[in-house]
Amino acid sequence: MIDLHSHSLYSDGELLPSEALRRVTVLGYRYLGITDHVDASNFDLVLERLRRAATELNKVSPTKLIPGVEFTHVPPSQLGPLVTQARALGAVLVVVHGETLAEPVAPGTNRAALEADIDILAHPGLITREEVELAAQRGIMLEISARHGHSLANGHVAALAREVGAGLILNTDAHGPGNYITRARAIQIAQGAGLSPRDCDQMLANAEALAQRALARLGLAPL
After folding, report:
1. What is the pLDDT of residues 76-114, one digit of tens each?
2. Which of 111, 120, 142, 178 is the most exposed place for a label (fewest CB within 10 A)?
3. How far apart are CA 61 and CA 98, in angstroms?
4. pLDDT tens, 152-182?
5. How many Cα neighbours within 13 Å face the side chain of 88?
6. Strands 120-122 and 94-97
7. Torsional class of 90: left (φ above 0), alpha (ψ -120 to 50), beta (otherwise)
8. In the CATH scheme, what architecture does the domain 2-218 have?
9. How far apart are CA 182 and CA 171, in angstroms?
10. What is the Cα–Cα distance from 99 to 73, expressed in whole angstroms?
11. In the chain, where are the structural domains located?
């Protein structure tokens, strides 16, 4: 299992990075991305803490921790500059909290995120065809979410992505130990969104490629 969108107590998660990593190791995860919620006020602090955790834990853990950030409820006009600053500080995985159906994210967030240097647009809700086309052009992954509420539009996202040829990735958006899932459960969720077994294989390959790219940015060899 590869999960590139989760949270620790550095934002609104329940666990330290070390405990989160241990819990998913027991479940057979290969990579865990911890991408805590950030905005202009804290992205530098959170990124520094998670990079420090990854440096130490990856020396001994069979599951590799990929440190990242999830820009959340950031005004659309600020997304591009903040993502650029985060990259300059060494962010190897950048997620943006998309226009989910579960929260009042500002209109225009999906578009602004897709115009920035990000890796994943999380739970993008009622994303438009034009925006999905932009994601495909820019190689940005659109998320199929395992999280309640955020998963409401999985079918819509999956259908447009298949039609346009945009990349999909499935993440848990885990905030606590009860949110982590197995690979088998991830495939069930993807199939519930209308994806075929072949689509699921491609989705898993997308996660592998993105994880390896992030590891390369950290100077680590892939598992």
Report:
1. 999 999 999 999 999 999 999 999 999 999 999 999 999
2. 178
3. 31
4. 999 999 999 999 999 999 999 999 999 999 9
5. 7
6. parallel
7. left
8. Alpha-Beta Barrel (3.20)
9. 11
10. 9
11. 2-218
What DSSP line would sit under the chain, residue for residue? -EE--B--TTTT-SS-HHHHHHHHHHTT-SEEEEEEEE-TTTHHHHHHHHHHHHHHHTTT-SSEEEEEEEE-S--HHHHHHHHHHHHHTT-S-EEEE---TTS-PPTTHHHHHHTSS-SEEES--S--HHHHHHHHHHTPEEEEE-STTGGGGHHHHHHHHHHHT--EEEE--B-SGGG---HHHHHHHHHHTT--HHHHHHHHHHHHHHHHHHHHHHT----
**Cα–Cα distance between 8 and 54 in angstroms, integer?**
13
Nearest to 66 by CA among 56, 48, 54: 54
Rg (CA), the chain: 16
Q: Are 144 and 173 in contact (CB under 8 A)?
A: no
Tokens read off for 81: 């500059």
Residue 71 tokens read as 């820009």
Helical pair 183-192 and 197-218, crossing angle rounded to 10 deg: 130
